[in-house]
Amino acid sequence: MHAAERERLILDALKPSGFISYRDLEARLDASPATIRRDLTRLEETGQIVRVHGGAKLPEDDGSTAPRLLGTPFDQSITQNLAAKRAIGKAAAALCTPGEGVMIDGGTTTLQMCPHLDGLGLQVLTNSLHIVNALLPQPSTRILLPSGALFREQNIILAPAGEESMPRFHAPRLFMGAAAVGPQGAMQADVVLVAAERRLIDRAEEVILLVDSSKFRSQSGTIVCGLDEIDTIITDSGIPSDTARALQDAGVNLLVV
């Protein structure tokens, strides 16, 4: 297969969702991983794709030079289902052991953990400036941040594509949110978020998902992780009973608050 034909197939594979993983490309193309990487490099140099952690995506062209993310902006999301998010955050904080290190991914539900962490003496790695601001008044809480670009809609820090930005940090628990949850697993609206959360998952012994029950109604997005990678889901009583049974049948520890 000629390079031009492989490049056409790569671009065709990107069109449905705007993202494709290296694993999917290797399955689709009769080529070695090194050849596929060279194809992607040429496509990126001509501006036809953007390489990201785990694969490639179509470039965004909104006329702005500032990095942007798909999905609901933080300032809008923070007001939605707030009572449920507060209860979920309190229950999540109760799972923390004094003095341990944890990772808290940026999000409006994970943010609700912060008031309940005061006095626990935790070491917290987070990519969220909202979470940093909430933890700053807590003298016993140590805060670690990755390097990268600031995405203002969510006020989170994410690394450029292919760049390793996380401190050498391993934690027993990762607390993270999701745009949607379904039988396929946890999903996000933007592939950049997916790549960043995969980096966190790879450093965690236990993945704890914090989602209000509305996240089970929408089941579209790019998969961050399968249900088999999620240890615990904390949600509210609005979760449909059949969904709750399916999660428990999949081996997920379900906490309903």
Automatic annotation (TrEMBL):
<feature type="domain" description="HTH deoR-type">
    <location>
        <begin position="3"/>
        <end position="58"/>
    </location>
</feature>
<protein>
    <submittedName>
        <fullName>Transcriptional regulator, DeoR family</fullName>
    </submittedName>
</protein>
<dbReference type="InterPro" id="IPR036390">
    <property type="entry name" value="WH_DNA-bd_sf"/>
</dbReference>
<dbReference type="Pfam" id="PF00455">
    <property type="entry name" value="DeoRC"/>
</dbReference>
<dbReference type="GO" id="GO:0003700">
    <property type="term" value="F:DNA-binding transcription factor activity"/>
</dbReference>
<keyword id="KW-0804">Transcription</keyword>
<dbReference type="InterPro" id="IPR001034">
    <property type="entry name" value="DeoR_HTH"/>
</dbReference>
<dbReference type="GO" id="GO:0003677">
    <property type="term" value="F:DNA binding"/>
</dbReference>
<dbReference type="InterPro" id="IPR036388">
    <property type="entry name" value="WH-like_DNA-bd_sf"/>
</dbReference>
<dbReference type="InterPro" id="IPR050313">
    <property type="entry name" value="Carb_Metab_HTH_regulators"/>
</dbReference>
<keyword id="KW-0238">DNA-binding</keyword>
<keyword id="KW-0805">Transcription regulation</keyword>
<dbReference type="InterPro" id="IPR014036">
    <property type="entry name" value="DeoR-like_C"/>
</dbReference>
<dbReference type="InterPro" id="IPR018356">
    <property type="entry name" value="Tscrpt_reg_HTH_DeoR_CS"/>
</dbReference>
<dbReference type="Pfam" id="PF08220">
    <property type="entry name" value="HTH_DeoR"/>
</dbReference>
<dbReference type="InterPro" id="IPR037171">
    <property type="entry name" value="NagB/RpiA_transferase-like"/>
</dbReference>
